[in-house]
Amino acid sequence: MKEKVVLITGGSRGIGRRTVEEFSSQGYTVIMNYRQDDVFVRDLVSQLQDKYNNHIIAIKGDISVPEECERMVKEIWNVVGSVDILIHNAGPYIKERKSFADYTPEEWNYIVNGNLNSVFYLSRLIIPKMREKKWGRIITFGYDRVETAPGWIYRSAFAAAKAGLASFTKTISIEEAPSGITANMVCPGDIVGEWKEEQIHRAKEYHDDSTPVGRPGTGEDLSRIIFFLSKEDSDFITGSIIPVTGGKDVLGKIFHQ
């Protein structure tokens, strides 16, 4: 398994970075996609390679642009033979609470392209190599109860994109099953700020009354689930939507704000 190659979009910060560290700690070759801040990423790659002594490749590009995806994949094929595990972590999120009528077409397309279309743009280029090897893992990101396509007040574009992505993930899981490729979605709860890059042992030092398990969620909570889904023996888990919320009713809280 350590000979397999992992591509993580949006891998320089937040949950993406913690996932890069998870696979790096296990000795995997990791391709870390990022969109900006070259100096920061160069320093980060150097730090992580010194820490984990694995191979980390930084690939700059905007996954919401089809031409950028094609360029990035060409660069990737020049370095590695294939991508075995594709983790679609990147996706824009606007914190401002806005009614759907207040979105401009440009804002709407920005959210939908970054969270839904980008998965199509990149997956269609990576999957053929997975088919050749008869093995692959694809992970997408959703939100609490996304599989039921619930409304999310003031998050219409993001919710619509992720609900579409949940269906797309399930479709991939069915269509690609004969090729040994699984596709699953993980759904983070309230994992915010610095906790996105933190480890579980640190969170256990804090109490969080708003979460039934009693502690904050961390990026490691997500990265460990992703790593498990990517293992050889996890091949029977596909088409699943997996909440990682600490038991919190995330949408219920939102509806009552």
Can you describe this structure?
The protein has 257 residues and is of the alpha/beta class. The chain has one domain (5-255): 3-Layer(aba) Sandwich (Rossmann fold). Helix content is 42%, strand content 14%. Strands 3-2-1-4-5-6-7 form a 7-stranded parallel beta sheet, with helices on both faces. The longest helix is centred in the middle third of the chain and has 29 residues, at 105-133. The radius of gyration is 18 Å and the shape is globular.
Tally of helical segments: 8
Helix content: 40-55%
Low-confidence stretches: none
State which percent range the strand residues make up: 5-15%
Question: If you consult CATH, what is the topology?
Answer: Rossmann fold
Number of strands: 7
Structure class: alpha/beta
Q: Cα distance, first to last residue? A: 45 Å
CATH class: Alpha Beta
